[in-house]
Amino acid sequence: MVTSGRSIRLDEVRRSPAYGGVPEGYPCRRVNDRSVENLRGALTRYYPSIPAHLVEPVREHPEGGHEGWMGPEERLPLVRRVGLFSSRSIKRGPACFSRLAVAWYQLGPELTDLAGAVPGLVGLPRDELAEDCEY
Fold first, then answer.
1. Is 58 exposed, middle or buried (0-12, 13-18, 19+ CB in 10 A)?
2. What's the total number of domains in the chain?
């Protein structure tokens, strides 16, 4: 996640299903847009005073997928995550550490190899997005 070479730590992580609570229908753009906006809202509710960033999910359009009244089928990865990352301070001033809240979608529940499993997480401009803070 950090291309500057600084190590980061995942201090807290939450998980929810991408399609949890969807009563009926099929995954399509409208349903997925709502899921993404709900995740963005959860991110800012969980961490209201911390800079936040949503990694835009990869949207798949399966060949031969369902074509209904809400448009063509569109699928998101099945797991939504919200995580709080920290590292040593960015500017090396009086702050002790920096932090950034990030939300993303991933295919499965595992937290191994996030860099390979979540396109957009690697190369995230964390130094520009994160905020220095003190204990």
1. middle
2. 1
pLDDT per residue over 112-124, tens digit each?
777 666 777 777 8
pTM: 0.85
Residue 3 in any domain: the answer is no
Q: Model confidence at 111, in pLDDT bands (50, 70, 90)?
A: confident
User: Structural domain of residue 70, as residue ranges?
Assistant: 9-133
| Residue 126 forms part of a structural domain | yes
Highest mean pLDDT among 63-67, 88-92, 115-119: 63-67
Residue 125 vs residues 18, 101, 109: alpha-carbon distances, Å:
25, 13, 25
| 3-state DSSP assignment of residue 123 | coil
Going from the C-alpha of 114 to that of each of 17, 46, 96, 129, the distances in angstroms are 17, 21, 26, 19
The two tokens of residue 126 are 């964390």
On whether residue 1 sits in a domain, the answer given is: no
